[in-house]
């Protein structure tokens, strides 16, 4: 018997008074204990979707359940299962870290549990700063306080809206480790991010949203296998000024220094054409010194989905 999704979104529509439709019939199931990355360019509907699931925004139509509780008909029960780390840092600057986290727990009507909160602060490398005022913390540490607040009431589902925006690479990797530990403890995590490598590093599944619609939801590895291209780099013993006419059918690119040829092919294809290509390269009088292959990154796949025909950097 298949386990019920912990979050179920059905035909969700959100239209603002201006007539702008931020969500257009979104349906999405989120499994218990998974990390799902929600990718999309600015204005795609990521934050609106999270806000609606969390009950901050009210949908125009459609339904959302969390742990079986409808977010409109049974808001308190649904919201008690959710932790939200917002994109913007909004904290009381002159309050101590530990009091900030205690207060968030109390908002959900839970009794004090300093042992749990101390352990939580240790996991987030905040325990030595528990008695410091928030204003004294770095931006990265403030982000950790936001996560501690979101986890203070022991939610089953954690939403991270751009959790590593504006933090340095080293701290970003620390955050990935925190997320991995939370998932190992059974927390379901929904992550929005502009850093595509973040999703590639830690997500189990990828959901791509654009213009208020879900374009796909798929296992990350399967997606990269299905949609990714491979690139074969053929290093040449001697540089060439131009690609021989006999190799034109392969659509090869020449490296700027002329010392390599690049061949792109579908990784799932039954026949890649590589064997024939290598034979034809030799027949053209070129001598190979090395071969290297590279798989398309998730970023390249994402760009192709949200900006058809585009290449290069991801949509901002």
TrEMBL record:
Keyword terms, alphabetized: ATP-binding, Nucleotide-binding, Transport
Pfam families tied to this protein: ABC_tran
GO molecular function: ATP binding; ATP hydrolysis activity
Keyword Ribosomal protein among record annotations: no
Residue ranges occupied by any ABC transporter domain in the UniProt entry: 7-236
Region forming the signal peptide: none
Alphabetized SMART domains for the sequence: AAA (SM00382)
Domain of life according to the entry: Bacteria
Keyword Transferase tagged: no
CDD domains cross-referenced by the UniProt entry: ABC_DR_subfamily_A (cd03230)
Coiled coil (residue ranges): none
Protein name: ABC transporter ATP-binding protein
Organism listed in the record: Histidinibacterium lentulum
């Amino acid at each position: 018997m298949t386990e019920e999704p912990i979050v179920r979104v059905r035909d969700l529509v959100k239209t603002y008074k201006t007539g702008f439709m931020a969500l257009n019939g979104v349906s999405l199931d989120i499994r218990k204990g998974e990390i799902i990355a929600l990718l999309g360019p600015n204005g795609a509907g990521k934050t609106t979707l999270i806000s609606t699931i969390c009950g901050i925004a009210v949908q125009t139509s459609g339904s959302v359940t969390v742990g079986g509780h409808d977010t409109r008909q049974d808001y308190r029960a649904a919201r008690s299962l959710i932790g939200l780390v917002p994109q913007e840092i909004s904290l009381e600057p002159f309050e101590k870290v530990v009091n900030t986290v205690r207060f968030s727990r109390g908002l959900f009507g839970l009794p004090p549990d300093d042992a749990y909160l101390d352990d939580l602060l240790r996991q987030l490398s905040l325990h030595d700063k528990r008695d410091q005022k928030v204003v004294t913390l770095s931006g990265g540490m403030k982000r950790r306080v936001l996560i501690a607040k979101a986890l203070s009431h022991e939610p089953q589902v954690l939403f991270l809206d751009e959790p590593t925006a504006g933090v340095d690479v080293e701290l970003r990797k620390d955050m990935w480790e925190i997320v991995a530990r939370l998932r190992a403890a059974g927390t379901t995590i929904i992550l929005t991010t502009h850093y595509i490598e973040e999703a590639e590093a830690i997500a189990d599944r990828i959901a791509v949203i654009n213009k208020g619609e879900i374009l796909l939801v798929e296992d990350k590895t399967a997606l990269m296998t299905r949609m990714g291209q491979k690139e074969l780099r053929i290093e040449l013993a001697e540089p060439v000024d131009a690609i021989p006419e006999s190799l034109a059918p392969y659509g090869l690119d020449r490296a700027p220094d002329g010392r390599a040829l690049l061949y792109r092919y579908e990784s799932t294809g039954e026949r890649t054409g590589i064997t024939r290509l290598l034979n034809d390269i030799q027949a053209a009088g070129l001598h190979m010194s090395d071969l290297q292959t590279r798989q398309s990154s998730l970023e390249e796949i994402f760009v192709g989905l949200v900006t058809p025909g585009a290449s290069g950097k991801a949509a901002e």
